[in-house]
């Protein structure tokens, strides 16, 4: 059974624009694909492992083909379990608010946890990186409260889309579709932009 995994990066619950828009996507996806399984990973729920010094040393040991010590094996077990949860899905939905022109740190933490040699990527000294998440596809819901294309640099910059979409394609996910909720570039109003984004979310979900 094909599976859609929704990874939500906002801690704001019912007040989150990105999460509400993702819920519109999920409802439309469920209607279009009643035989698919839909799961949700709230990245703020405490199940995402930390990626600190021991994990970093473990990653480099794996990269070098070296044995792990006991502490490294423990943390590596948590890392590979997080990756397995991610990799079990065929399709991904990310709901991503803009924080300081970029991603919430918990989403960057997720990326750092799962982006491991032999899991998300392979590396060859002569040809470089090769993404291993082939055959999967992703939809991304972006939101921002101030930034919008065309508003000028005083309203912020977009490091949100380039980073996340760049990571997905580096990881091997070639099919990436996006929905963005931005304030109107002239008035700053969100209501009209919200209606447009909701329609886009339903359309993308129906054809996903």
TrEMBL record:
For the protein in the UniProt heading, the enzyme class is oxidoreductase
User: Which reaction(s) does its UniProt entry say it catalyses?
Assistant: 2 a quinone + NADH + H(+) = 2 a 1,4-benzosemiquinone + NAD(+); N,N-dimethyl-1,4-phenylenediamine + anthranilate + 2 NAD(+) = 2-(4-dimethylaminophenyl)diazenylbenzoate + 2 NADH + 2 H(+)
Cofactor, free-text remark:
Binds 1 FMN per subunit.
What does the record give as cofactor?
Answer: FMN
- Could you list this entry's UniProt keywords, alphabetically sorted: Flavoprotein, FMN, NAD, Oxidoreductase
UniProt cross-references to Gene3D superfamilies, sorted A to Z: 3.40.50.360
Q: What is its EC number?
A: 1.6.5.-, 1.7.1.17
| Keyword Nucleotidyltransferase in annotation | no
> Member of which family?
Belongs to the azoreductase type 1 family.
Summary of subunit composition and partner proteins: Homodimer.
Name it. Answer: FMN dependent NADH:quinone oxidoreductase
In its UniProt entry, the species of origin is given as Jiangella aurantiaca
What are the top taxonomic ranks of the organism? Bacteria, Bacillati, Actinomycetota, Actinomycetes, Jiangellales
């Amino acid at each position: 059974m094909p599976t859609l995994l929704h990874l939500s990066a906002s801690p704001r619950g019912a007040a989150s624009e990105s999460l509400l828009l993702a819920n519109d996507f999920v409802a439309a996806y469920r209607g279009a694909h009643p035989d698919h399984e839909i799961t949700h990973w709230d990245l703020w729920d405490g199940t995402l492992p930390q990626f600190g010094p021991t994990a970093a040393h473990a990653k480099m040991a794996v990269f070098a083909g070296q044995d792990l010590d006991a502490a490294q094996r423990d943390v590596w077990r948590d890392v590979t379990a997080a990756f397995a949860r991610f990799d079990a899905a065929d399709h991904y939905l990310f709901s991503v608010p803009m924080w300081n022109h970029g991603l919430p740190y918990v989403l960057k933490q997720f990326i750092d946890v799962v982006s491991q040699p032999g899991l998300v990527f392979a590396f060859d000294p002569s040809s470089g990186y090769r993404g291993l998440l082939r055959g999967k596809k992703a939809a991304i819901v972006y939101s921002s409260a101030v930034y919008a294309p065309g508003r000028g640099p005083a309203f912020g910059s977009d490091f949100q889309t380039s980073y996340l979409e760049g990571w997905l394609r580096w990881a091997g996910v070639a099919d990436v579709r996006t929905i963005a909720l931005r304030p109107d570039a002239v008035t700053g109003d969100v209501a009209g932009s919200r209606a447009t984004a909701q329609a886009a979310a339903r359309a993308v979900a129906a054809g996903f």
